[in-house]
Design a protein that fits this description.
By secondary structure, this protein is mostly beta strands. Helices cover 10% and strands 52% of the residues. A hairpin with a 2-residue loop joins strand 4 and strand 5.
């Protein structure tokens, strides 16, 4: 039975994993760079370091465990720079990603807009020891032999991210624009790169009488090897994020969707977020739900001691 599970994991999951890397983390609500390079350095007052951990469908054999370490922050008045290291383990398959992101931001009256671009190297590898049994796997399968050696791909993404009056947020990103195989063989994609996208919009509303901030949002995502899904989110925070809570619901075609709860807190420059998701269909009886943790370190940007315009005003 274990070999059968492993067989389906390798033959099916390897194909989907090598094609889909977007929309894995649910905590893009707190780190939008996870889904949109346009958000890189958008917070022009802070540098941010994020550690993300997600364990999906716990207690089910071979389910995904995903880890990411990322940084993004402003450079000067207009630029943003970010970097991310990412890994995911599914059964005997390990997926790695190293990514750099860049952005240019500007403001027009009440609109703040940023255009971003990311470049990344992806590598997928299968554990050789798990496919040594020739009675289960065909040793002449080119796909498996290639995965044993490590399948490397270069890719790029484009994104736009913005706010209106610091209250309404919106974003649009195009993942997987370029997928150039290192061996020079181009992959096939019947839909084309522009048919895969992520669109988000939402708002931030203060209830001053109760010192509460509400942030409803929606994400529409269509990524490779997955059906179109819609996330509905509501996050609330109290007393300057000392207490954070939220609810999420994800639509899944031909299924009942997923429901999640969010809890978190912020102490000085450290923010901690935890969420738990459950599948609303029959599959939930076979697993213990999905857990995700984010730790965010926020560093205030320098006061700009090299700003010559301030010195000039002072001298006058």
């Amino acid at each position: 039975m274990k070999k059968i599970v492993l067989l389906f994991s390798v033959l099916f999951v390897f194909k989907t994993l090598s094609a889909q890397e977007e929309g894995v983390f649910g905590h893009y609500l707190f780190n939008p760079v996870l889904i949109n390079p346009g958000a890189t350095g958008f917070d022009d007052e802070h540098h941010n370091v994020f550690m993300n951990i997600r364990s999906s469908w716990t207690n089910f054999p071979g389910t995904p465990k995903t880890y990411a370490l990322s940084y993004n922050g402003p450079v000067g008045k207009r630029l943003g720079l970010g970097a991310m290291l990412y890994t995911e383990n599914i059964a005997s398959i390990t997926f790695y990603r190293a990514q750099l992101s860049y952005s240019f931001r500007y403001e027009v009256e009440d609109v703040k807009l940023s255009a971003g671009f990311s470049t990344q190297f992806n590598s997928t590898r299968i554990d050789n020891s798990d496919i040594a049994d020739q009675t289960v796997f065909d040793q002449n399968d080119d796909l498996l032999m290639e995965a044993m050696d490590g399948d490397g791909v270069f890719d790029a993404s484009l994104g736009f991210y913005g706010t209106i009056k610091d209250r309404y947020t919106f974003g649009f990103s195009l993942p997987n624009l370029v997928r150039a195989r290192l061996d020079g063989i181009e992959g096939t994609d019947d839909d084309g790169p522009l048919s895969h996208f992520l669109i988000n919009f939402g708002g931030r509303f203060d209830i001053s009488d109760y010192k509460i901030k509400l942030e409803p949002s929606v994400l529409i995502k269509r990524v490779r090897s997955a059906p179109t899904q819609i996330d509905f989110n509501l996050v609330s925070s109290f007393l300057q994020e000392r207490f954070i809570t939220g609810l999420t619901y994800t639509t899944i075609p031909d299924a009942n969707g997923e429901f999640g709860v969010i809890l978190g807190t912020k102490y000085n420059a450290v923010r901690f977020i935890y969420s738990y998701d459950v599948h609303l269909g029959d599959f939930q009886q076979y697993n213990g739900g999905s857990h995700e943790i984010t730790i965010n370190f926020e560093f205030a940007r320098g006061a700009g001691k090299f700003d010559r315009s301030k010195k000039y005003r002072k001298d006058r």
